[in-house]
Amino acid sequence: MTDEDKKLAKKLRKEKKRKEKEVAAAQEEVVEVESKKKKKKDKKRKAEKHDEESVEKKTKADFTNGPYQQPAPSDKSFKKSFYVESDKTASLSNQDVDAFHQEHHMTISGNNCLYRPILKFADVNFPKAMLKSCENFTKPTPIQSQCWPILTSGRDIIGIAQTGSGKTLAFSVPGLVHITDQLKNNPKKKGPIMLVVAPTRELAVQCAEVISEAGKSVNITSLCLYGGVPKHEQKRALKAGVQVVVATPGRLKDLVQEKCCSLANVTYTVLDEADRMLDDGFEKDIRLIMSECHVERQIAMFSATWPQSIQKLAHEFLVDPVKVTIGSDDLAASENVTQIVEVVDEYGRDSKLDSLLKKYHSSRKNRVLVFVLYKKEAVRVETMLNRKGWKCTAIHGDKGQQQRMEALEAFKTGKVPLLIATDVAARGLDIPDVEFVLNYSFPLTIEDYVHRIGRTGRGGKKGTSHTFFTNHDKPKAGELVNLLRDSNAPVPEELTKFGTHVKKKEHKLYGAFAKDVDMNKKATKITFDSDDE
């Protein structure tokens, strides 16, 4: 080997060693990076576990005001159900399920949400006695079909559906199943196990009637709590013991704070018409009520719309929910309602209303619901119609609870088939066979308009709404035009002259709506820097 060959071999050996050192250094760097990643993941996993274990406590401590900030103590008596499909439901193919969802404009979202709908009452896997209140129906409504298997499995749920879709039985039947399961685990359990919170007295009473009728067959007792009546009878009934409480937020909060109503054993909670409750400023009361319920609970939240305020509340309290939407997240008018909008002079409404009643209420036997905006307006319109010879009654906030109940009952039975009402009757009330809804005054929001006209066209029947629109309602013209177009309803040319611009949607409490809340993201606790430095 020549000297030149030796030098070349030496150079190659040095180059090889240099490369080996570089590879070794790179491998060490990779190992170090992987080690850091592993430590970071372990730290994150530990933090997530800690956050998951204390999420209930954190939420209540951060957002609940007042003396009742601590959640009810946990015990081992709560046991969630696990839904097992019946043979008939399990036999539904994925194509059958997709066809059902498409037919009813339904979307399901969430983790592990492959729940096949129950298409027939015979297909349920819970005791048939629970369905006693459904014996007059041929099959479940779409929201009942999809919500029953989800709720009886123990999952939290968000239900978005237009009014008149059968939501009350959608959450009350699984609630009865839940109560039965809880009493099997702990027969001596005291106090309410199921809680339903509703925004108005009328809606609370209606829910309570449905639940009471459904619970009779399985010996489950219920109680309705609302304001405007003395508390002593409600306190006595609570002391006697009930399994279900249906309540308005204000009265329930009062009884909880007075230590007359314990929610410590409530493991099935329903927020009905949640959007209306937040619109009416009940958020603080809702948070206090939720903090008083059992820390391990199942929650069903039903709403007609999905604004950011509702998303925020759901994100804080619901755990891994399944979301069932019929139609869209935005409010839509019922397809069963024929909408007529008439642009009129404000001072000509009385004579026009009289003319419409002669057209729509000529028999004086069919049910007609006339909506006004304010309590004083309800009194004036009722007096005016009585003076013109129409037999009518009214429901509004200035009337006592007994008077309101009597007016509703007279309207439901047909004794007085013409009812004048403010928006206290616009949400959730299931009044059978209302043929016509007349909007004497346009409501404050387009959402209330949709809820008003939803009092007709219920249970698959057709109905008609006739709405007066005046120059004072001009700011709402754009929203109304869009709604009519989306519903394939005729748009009066006079209405478009007011303009079709729609302002950015804002909430009276939360301001402009931002992007949707990610329901799969965990809630985080907000911390502030200390000033004492």
TrEMBL record:
Coiled-coil region(s): none
Localization per record: Nucleus, Nucleolus
Chain intervals for the UniProt region annotation (Disordered): 1-79
Composition bias, Basic and acidic residues: 48-61
Record bears the keyword Magnesium: no
Sorted UniProt keywords: ATP-binding, Helicase, Hydrolase, Nucleotide-binding, Nucleus, Ribosome biogenesis, rRNA processing
Annotated Basic residues bias: 8-19, 36-47
Domain of life where this protein originates: Eukaryota
Chain location of the short sequence motif Q motif per the record: 119-145
Residue span, Helicase C-terminal domain: 352-499
EC number: 3.6.4.13
Domain DEAD-box RNA helicase Q residues, every copy: 119-145
CDD domains: DEADc, SF2_C_DEAD
Domain Helicase ATP-binding: 148-324
Matches recorded under SMART domains: DEXDc, HELICc
InterPro entries xrefs: DEAD/DEAH_box_helicase_dom, DEAD/DEAH_RhlB, Helicase_ATP-bd, Helicase_C-like, P-loop_NTPase, RNA-helicase_DEAD-box_CS, RNA_helicase_DEAD_Q_motif
GO-annotated molecular function: ATP binding; hydrolase activity; nucleic acid binding; RNA helicase activity
Main EC class the enzyme belongs to: hydrolase
Stated family: Belongs to the DEAD box helicase family. DDX5/DBP2 subfamily.
Functional description taken from the UniProt entry: ATP-dependent RNA helicase required for 60S ribosomal subunit synthesis. Involved in efficient pre-rRNA processing, predominantly at site A3, which is necessary for the normal formation of 25S and 5.8S rRNAs.
Record's protein name: RNA helicase
